[in-house]
Specification:
Layout lengths: L1 H17 L4 E4 L2 H8 L7 E4 L5 E5 L17 E4 L7 H11 L4 E4 L6 H10 L4 E4 L3 H6 L4 H22 L8 H14 L4 E2 L4 E4 L20 E6 L1 E3 L2 E2 L2 E6 L6 H19 L7 H14 L11 E3 L6 E5 L12 E4 L2 E4 L3 E4 L2 E4 L9 E2 L11
Length: 369
């Protein structure tokens, strides 16, 4: 993996050089981990000329799963003393490298840090790196996709086991905690995001915070969870009915959301515009009379962050590439009644390779539990 990280930093270095910048300061934790293999708390990465790359950290890397595994070929500078600022130390070194300009992540750098950098290296011209690293992260290599595949398998296992247990009478909060425990039991570093469990009138809500409401017969039960495996995060969401026979309105709503989700999945091909994928799913819900209840987007990218580019939304600009992992997660919530959300993580693949690769494989049949 050391060569992989060095190659990633080399690509960024070439991009900076083409823009006339000799060095770049990376402060966003996910971007640091992508380029260095690990992101200890408060660490920053200086990508300098001629491979002079240094990770600045306020404490020695621990090697813990939540930090990642550091590139062994990368130089590490551990700062001494409380209150040290790794970004300031990196800026000081950039100034000593005789760099005329330093590209920084203005979308992540605080105003206070920006001022501190100017004061420690007044000869440096600070320019905006923009989302250069995020754009580099869009297309995943096969090792990254393998981590996402394992994360999806773990989430599928945890959800499958929950469905085999007795659910009536248990609270949303209890079910969410049990799912997160099962994720870890099956090898996850932890949940990819706070697990969402909604029952009855709470079902179908995006990012619903589990409450003390108990599962009742006749409820819709919607679950959205994800596993974090070696830093890579997947997402799966399913909706079920509690009891032996769903009501007619539940079947009708479920079938509509299922059709929308299928349309979105089938639109995931290299070259498809982000907004086209959103439209494919959204138009089905519009035709069913539930367009006003649809979320702002019907999917998003996943990777080292659970919600990253691309965004599959009506106004999103850009087109899909192969090997880009995304979610497709349309849903409808009817206030006071509940709703349906179906969410999968997939990898964009060309039709010659079989089309979109589905990572989360738990059945999407409307199960009565």
């Amino acid at each position: 993996m050391s060569d992989v990280y060095a190659t990633r930093r080399g690509l960024l270095r070439d991009r900076c050089a083409a823009a006339g910048n000799a060095a770049a300061l990376i402060t966003r934790p996910a971007n640091v981990r992508y380029l260095a293999g690990a992101s200890p708390p408060s660490a920053v990465l200086l990508v300098g000329p001629d491979g002079e790359d240094v990770l600045f950290t306020v404490g020695p890397p621990t090697g813990e799963a939540d930090e990642g595994r550091l590139d062994e070929g990368l130089r590490v500078s551990v700062l001494a003393g409380p209150g040290s600022d790794a970004a300031v130390a990196a800026g000081d070194m950039a100034g000593s490298l005789r760099a005329e300009s330093l590209a920084v992540e203005e979308h992540h750098l605080t105003v206070a840090r920006h001022r501190a950098l100017r004061s420690v290296a007044p000869g440096l011209r600070l320019v905006d790196l923009g989302a250069a690293v995020e754009q580099q992260r869009l297309v995943k290599d096969e090792e990254e996709i393998a981590c996402l595949r394992i994360a999806a398998e773990i989430a599928d296992q945890a959800l499958g086991e929950l469905l085999e247990s007795i659910l009536v009478g248990r609270t949303e909060r209890h079910l969410a905690l049990e799912l997160e425990r099962r994720l870890v039991d099956h090898g996850a570093d932890g949940p990819a995001f706070p697990t969402c469990v909604g029952t009855g009138p709470n079902s179908g809500l995006s990012r619903h915070r589990p409450s003390d409401r108990r599962v009742e017969e006749g409820d819709f039960l919607s679950v959205c969870l994800g596993a974090n495996y070696r830093g890579y995060r997947c997402e799966i969401g399913r909706t079920f009915v509690i009891g032996t026979s769903p009501a007619d309105w539940q079947i009708e709503l479920y079938d509509l959301v299922f059709a929308a989700q299928r349309a979105g999945r089938e639109a995931l091909l290299p070259g498809a515009a982000y907004r086209e994928v959103d439209h494919a799913a959204r138009s089905v819900l519009d035709s069913g009379g539930h367009g006003e209840a649809v979320a702002a987007s019907t999917g998003h990218g996943v990777g080292l962050e659970i919600d990253e580019d691309p965004q599959l939304a009506p106004t999103a600009m850009g087109k899909l590439d192969a090997c880009v992992p995304v979610t497709v997660e349309p849903g409808v919530h009817l206030p006071g009644r509940g709703g349906v959300r179906i969410d999968d993580t997939l990898v964009v693949r060309p039709e010659a390779d079989g089309g979109p690769e589905l990572l989360t494989i738990t059945t999407k049949e409307l199960l009565a539990l």
